[in-house]
């Protein structure tokens, strides 16, 4: 892809697209991007670089992910796209009845109840086994060094760290949460911007994962520590749950949007929401980006797709409506007919019967990786396994305690998952990886940056810099402070409830790398809403 508009779009002037041809790593933290680039320069491929970057991000951006995270990946190599689902299931012994017996009417956000099996370490090892070229323990060395020696806190990281600390001081009550404060706020103080932070426990855990290809995490000493911590505080997670975990290779799903194939991981991820929205939107023609009608149709399509997603998406084998039914063109047409001149309050249709980190890597051999990893809601459950640096995720928070809901909680089940990597191809050739982190903003960000690229020909940096919006619920839409006010006013007249939100972090943080298949040149864009950077050569 190279038909970019570099000069005639206002957001292009903020930061220019990075251009290189030997290797590129784009992510939300400069030190992590450099870790991936170092691996490329040592002879590693894009898969090795992705693993190194992901591991480093657990250290240098712990406000968004950790060793106790889940992960998903889309990997382009040797002319084929592969999908890896690195999300873990709920503990086998958990149930709706047991959670309700503990006094909960809905799934809590903190503590042991929402903790699911962490999939990230297993995903790293699986990617390395299948596609890596360097020894796994070598790939984790940059992350280990950052944890052992320490690194200075960057501005956005410092802001979210302090925000999480204030929140956790209010909501975390119990001895099980003590280790989070010991690890991330030693002596009752979070690290300030520019201050050096280190975690010996984190370093030792990464060393063990590297030396055993993650087996110690699921079957060995680390598994013992996790299960003992769970048992001590009445958690459902056991060593058996950890030992039985295996990342799953999956077939990516796609829709064709204006000649481009847009690829996502199948459910339990919410990438299906982005594809459903694009399937609706492809029936319209868009000639102008900065027009109220363009935004109106985008917002209405997203509302319809998201309402379906939140109703029907769960682990794929438990879905009442298949992916094919939800992506059926006839069904998309029926949903499209609901989009009129006025904003609607969306309801799910009836298909025809029958705090996350993202990174993108590319190398000179043509390998490309779209990788995403997250604890959920910032630091996650508020639980850190003592002396390990492992902050456990709280993905189970998305389960429903309504037995009739598609995403109802049950033991050994993977929940509706917010983190989604994306990939773009055209005519069977790779265009490249893209992603926008940020909870339920993610499919909305995917649609917006893809339309900026495909419909409006924006270069990667401009596509990311452009003001964003986010559907919240009903007719409520949040927009960034840089969103054009005259268009916001027009949208209000169409019945949308527009709220200007000053917090940039609410609108996701994205990265993308596009490849010109004729020249091999890579074009990278990184997020202006965080400490993001692109390392390349």
Automatic annotation (TrEMBL):
Molecular function terms in GO for this entry? hydrolase activity
* Keywords, sorted A to Z: Hydrolase
List the InterPro entries hit by this protein, alphabetically: GGT-like_enzyme, GGT_ssub_C, Ntn_hydrolases_N
Q: Which lineage ranks, top first, belong to the organism behind this chain?
A: Bacteria, Bacillati, Bacillota, Bacilli, Bacillales
One Pfam family, short name please? G_glu_transpept
Q: Which residues form a coiled coil?
A: none
What protein does this entry describe? Gamma-glutamyltranspeptidase / glutathione hydrolase
Q: Classify the source by domain of life.
A: Bacteria
């Amino acid at each position: 892809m190279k038909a970019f508009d570099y000069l005639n779009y206002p957001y292009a002037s903020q930061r220019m697209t990075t251009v290189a041809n030997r290797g590129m790593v784009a992510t939300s933290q400069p030190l992590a991007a450099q870790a991936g680039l170092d691996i490329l320069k040592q002879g590693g491929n894009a898969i090795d670089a992705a693993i190194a970057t992901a591991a480093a991000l657990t250290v240098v951006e712990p406000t968004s992910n950790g060793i106790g995270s889940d992960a998903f990946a889309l990997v382009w190599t040797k002319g084929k796209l592969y999908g890896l689902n690195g999300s873990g299931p709920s503990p086998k012994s958990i149930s709706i009845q047991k959670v309700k017996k503990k006094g909960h009417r809905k799934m809590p956000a903190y503590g042991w109840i929402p903790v699911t099996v962490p999939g990230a370490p297993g995903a790293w090892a699986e990617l390395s086994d299948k596609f890596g070229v360097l020894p796994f323990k070598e790939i984790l060395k940059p992350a280990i060094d950052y944890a052992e020696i320490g690194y200075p806190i960057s501005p956005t990281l410092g802001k979210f760290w302090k925000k999480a600390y204030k929140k956790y001081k209010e909501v975390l009550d119990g001895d099980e949460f003590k280790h989070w404060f010991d690890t991330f706020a030693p002596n009752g103080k979070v690290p300030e911007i520019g201050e050096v932070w280190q975690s010996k426990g984190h370093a030792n855990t990464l060393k063990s994962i590297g030396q055993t290809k993650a087996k110690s995490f699921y079957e060995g000493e680390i598994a013992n520590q996790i299960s003992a911590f769970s048992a001590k505080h009445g958690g459902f997670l056991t060593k058996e749950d950890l030992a039985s975990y295996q990342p799953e290779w999956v077939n990516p799903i796609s829709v064709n949007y204006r000649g481009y194939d847009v690829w996502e991981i199948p459910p339990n991820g919410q990438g299906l929401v982005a594809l459903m929205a694009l399937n609706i939107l492809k029936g319209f023609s868009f000639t102008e980006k900065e027009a109220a009608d363009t935004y109106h149709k985008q917002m209405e399509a997203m509302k319809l797709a998201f309402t379906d997603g939140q109703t029907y998406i769960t682990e794929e084998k438990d879905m009442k409506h298949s992916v094919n039914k939800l992506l059926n063109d006839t069904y998309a047409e029926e949903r499209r007919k609901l989009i009129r001149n006025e904003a609607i309050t969306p309801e799910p249709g009836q298909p025809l019967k029958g705090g996350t980190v993202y990174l993108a890597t590319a190398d000179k051999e043509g390998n490309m990786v779209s990788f995403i990893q997250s604890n959920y809601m910032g630091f996650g459950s508020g639980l850190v396994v003592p002396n390990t640096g492992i902050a456990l995720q709280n993905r189970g928070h998305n389960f429903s305690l309504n037995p009739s809901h598609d995403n109802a909680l049950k033991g050994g089940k993977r929940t509706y998952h917010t983190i989604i990597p994306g990939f773009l191809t055209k005519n069977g050739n790779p265009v490249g990886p893209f992603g926008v982190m940020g909870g339920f903003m993610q499919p909305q960000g995917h649609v917006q940056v893809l339309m900026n690229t495909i419909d409006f020909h924006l270069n990667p940096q401009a596509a990311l810099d452009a003001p964003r919006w986010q559907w919240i619920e009903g007719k409520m839409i949040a927009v960034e402070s840089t969103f054009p006010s005259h268009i916001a006013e027009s949208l209000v007249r169409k019945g949308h409830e527009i709220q200007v939100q000053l917090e940039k972090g609410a609108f996701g943080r994205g990265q993308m790398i596009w490849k010109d298949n004729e020249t091999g040149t890579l074009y990278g864009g990184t997020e202006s809403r965080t400490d993001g950077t692109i390392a390349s050569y």
